[in-house]
Amino acid sequence: MTGSVDSLPFGLRDTQQLLFDAVTIADESGQSGAAAQLSELIAANGLGALRRVAIYRSAYRARLVECLADDYPATQYLLGHAAFAGLCREYIHEVPPGVTLNDYGARFAEYCLQHAPEHASLASELAQLEWALVTAVHQSDARKLAPAELAALTPADWDSASLLPSPTLTLVATRYPVNGFLQAFRDDRAPPPPSPAPSWVVVCRDGIDVWRIELRPELAPLFARLVAGEPLAAALASMSSSAPDADAVETESMIQQAFSQWMRAGCFSGIRRTSSG
Amino acid sequence: MKHAGFELPNLGLGVGLRTAHYAHILDERPDVDWFEVLSDNYMNTEGRPLYYLDRVAERYPVVLHGVGLSIGSTDPLDRNYLNQLKALRDRSGARWVSDHMAWTGVHGRFGHDLYPMPMTDASVRHMAARVRQVQDVLGAPLLLENPSTYLRLSSGAPELSEGDFIAALAEEADCALLLDVNNLFVNASNHGFDPYACLRRIPLDRVVQFHVAGHSQADGYLADTHVGPVPDPVWRLLAEAFRLGADASVLLEWDSEIPSFEVVHRDVLKARRFIDAARAPTSGSNVAQGARP
Asked: Which residues lie closer than 8 Å to B237 by C-beta, 6 or more apart?
C-alpha cells in the first residue's frame, strides 16, 4: 500500500504541502508565506483567496481548542475561557496533532505547568486529574478482582502476592485539592481557586462508570505501593511502620474498608504471585 | 433505480450517533431506523466508547462514517488506519463505510479537517486508485461523500464542475456515493453555482446515502456547522434528488449545540414529507427519466 510519488498527479503534492502549511503555520499577523504563495492557486470568487485560506486556518485551531476543552472543562473554567484558548493556541503551535485526536491532550498538564498565565501549578494538577478521567474512559476493560479471591489468600501467600492494577487506573497525587474543585465545578458551584492541601485521588473505570476515590492521607502510601506491585505483606508493613502509634484495631478496620471500596470500584484486576526462590 | 452492484438497502431515516444521546438511546430504545457512527471516535480506544457502540449495534442497523481515510492525500494510505477501520466494521456489522472526497493531511501531518482536491481528471484518477485499494482491504463498499469546501484549488489543468467531478470519480472508482445535500447547498453558495444544475450531473443511481444538516451564515460565506434544524432549501434539494429518481437512506447530522434526542429525531422525520411530496404524481413528471443528464 505504498503510492509512488512519481505516479501522482503533477503538482498535487506540492499544492497540498502549500495549503497545509498555510493552514497550520501562521506568523503573528495570522498570515504565512505559504498563504501568500498559495493565493496564486486559489480561484477568488467573491471572497479573496487569503480570506478563504483563513477559514481553514481558523477551523484548524478551533477544532483542536474544542478537543482540549472537551478533555479539560474544569481547567478551562479555572483559567477562564480566553486564557485557556490562548494557552491552547500555543500548545497547538508546539504540539501538532497525530492521526487520532483521542490522545491529543496527553501533554497538556505538563504544558500548563510551564506556560499557564496564572494558577500554573493548580491548573497542571487539575489537568492531570482530568487526563486520568480521559485515560480511564479509553483504556481497555479489565476483569474485577473479587473479594473472595483476596480472602482465599493464606497468610503465607501475602509475602509473594501482589495486586494487578486495572489498565484504567491512575493515582493522582497533588498539592492542591483538585478533586473537590472538580466536583464543585461539575455541580455548578463556581468554585474559587483552592489553597494548597495535599490530595490523593484514585481514578479508575468499572464498566461504564468512572470512579474518583479520594484517599485518606494515611492510606495513600499503601495504595501507591500496591499499584507499584509490592507484595501485600510488604505494602501493609510499610503502613504500620509509618504510623507506629496508630490504634491497630482502627487501622485494620480502615484498611478493610478501603480494600472493599477499591475492589468495588474495580481498581484491581487480579493477583500476581511471584515465587520466592 | 440502483446501479448494478450498489443494491445496498435503503435503511430509512437515520440519526448520527452522538455521545450526548447514549443514555437516551439505550434506556428508551427510540424507534429510529438506523444510526451512523463516526468511526474515528471508536478507533484508538479500547474502552467505554466501544461499550456503547456494541449496545447500539445490537439493536439498530449501523453504518460507519469517517474523516481520516484521507483518500485524496498524496501520502501513502495508512495501513494501520485501514486495519482498524476494518476491525471496527467487523465488530459493528456496519452495512457500509463512508469517507470524503478530500484529504486531511500530508507529509505525515494531520489537520483533522477536509481539504479540497483540485477538480481535475488527475485528481479523479489519483483518488479512484486509492478507493479501489481501500475497498479491497475493507471487503466492504466504500461510499464517497462530497465535502463542503471554502476554496477551489486551481492547478492550471482543465477543471471539472462539482457535479462532473463527483460523477467522474464515482465512475472511475466504480464506487457508491454519499451525497450531502447540505454540502452541495453550502458549496453552491460559496462558489457561486446552481445546486440544482449540479444535482442533475450526479449519478443518483450510485447514491446509497444522503446527509442533511444545518449550516450557518458566517462573515461573507456559509459555514457547514451541522447546527440547528435542517433549513428548507436543503430539504428542497433532497426532495429534488428523490424527484429525479434517487432512492436512498437519509441521515441527519447535528454536531453543535446538540439538543435532546427527540428534537434531532423529529427533524429527520421531516424528510418523509419532502420525499413524499417529491414522489407525488403531480410533481413526479421527471421521475421516470432517471437521474442521468
From this structure: B181, B184, B185, B195, B196, B199
